Fold this sequence. Notes:
The complex is a heterodimer of chains A (114) and B (110). Chain A is mainly beta and 114 residues long. Chain A has no helices and 11 strands. Chain A has strands at 4-7, 10-13, 19-25, 32-38, 45-51, 57-58, 67-73, 76-81, 90-97, 103-105, 109-113. In chain A, strands 2, 4, 5, 6, 9, 10 and 11 form a 7-stranded mixed beta sheet that branches. In chain A, strand 5 and strand 6 form a beta hairpin. Chain B is mainly β. Chain B is 0% helix and 49% strand. Chain B has strands spanning 9-13, 18-23, 31-38, 45-50, 53-56, 61-64, 70-75, 84-92, 104-109. In chain B, the strands form 2 sheets. Chain B has a 5-stranded mixed beta sheet, with no helix packed on it. Chain B is globular and about 40 Å long. Classes of the chains: A mainly beta (114), B mainly beta (110). Chains A and B meet through strand 5, strand 9 and strand 10 of A and loops of B.
Amino acid sequence: GAVVSQHPSWVICKSGTSVKIECRSLDFQATTMFWYRQFPKQSLMLMATSNEGSKATYEQGVEKDKFLINHASLTLSTLTVTSAHPEDSSFYICSARRENNEQFFGPGTRLTVL
Amino acid sequence: LAKTTQPISMDSYEGQEVNITCSHNNIATNDYITWYQQFPSQGPRFIIQGYKTKVTNEVASLFIPADRKSSTLSLPRVSLSDTAVYYCLVGPLYGGELSFGAGTTVTVRA
């Protein structure tokens, strides 16, 4: 199957700093990428949908100025958590959808804000 | 997106068959049923997808009755490594984001 990678796999940062998470589709072009957040013992919650070259669409309740999403190419989307605070600590997962609509998930990024 | 209902948890033993039923009463005509598996601190992994009747692959079978208001994921002869959370999702095959429900935590014991 297709491979989606995320970098970094885990990150620890101080409160108030910004953190960038990359999501790459390694062997296919992703027309659309999705970002999810998952808190411990909970399900995945969709944060936003991004299409290459256009602005991301955010789910209700997700602050677009805090979670900046850039989808600069068909193989790369980035999520930047700006001015991170402890409540932003979570597991962030991206998925990439290719033209035949198959969707593949990345391995996730564990963010811990101190 | 159609809402899905699954049992919160299921326990089993190695070598047994595990059947997880998902209810999706409001499934639309063009909706497909997809199951994902997720291990702790990993992204979800696609298991199987179907529209009607029965679908089987190397890891699981998916049974869908004629009214499509429910579906059953069958995991044959589970092992300890099948301990995971299993999600049932319903949505159109082409287009749209995936909406995850609570999932079913399957625990396989020796």
